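Thread amino acids onto this structure.
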């Protein structure tokens, strides 16, 4: 538990700094404070919190569409039809065949 004082952060402030979502990025279920996994779909939030830009390596805040350091389009290889995240350089989605 975090004590409230002038020298400590509140959980809400830490969540804002890290970009911890209040809803699951995968299924949209509301998350309890301090959650590390979604209670509905078992999505691991640590993977989401530790994502890095493939171009410059800067940590990416949850839900970002562009890198805050270099401006790289983070959804360039994400299929707009099915949502699958394809590997860099892919021209077609390997899951559904949609043009990227």
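Threaded sequence (100 positions):
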């Amino acid at each position: 538990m975090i004590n409230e004082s002038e020298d400590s952060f509140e959980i809400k402030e830490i969540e804002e700094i890290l970009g911890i979502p209040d809803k699951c990025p995968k299924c949209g279920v509301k998350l309890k404070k301090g959650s590390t996994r979604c209670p509905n779909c078992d999505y691991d939030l640590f993977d989401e919190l530790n994502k890095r830009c493939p171009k410059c390596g800067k940590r990416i805040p949850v839900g970002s569409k562009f890198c805050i350091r270099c401006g790289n389009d983070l959804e360039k290889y994400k299929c707009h039809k099915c949502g699958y995240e394809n590997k860099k350089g892919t021209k077609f989605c390997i899951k559904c065949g949609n043009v990227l």
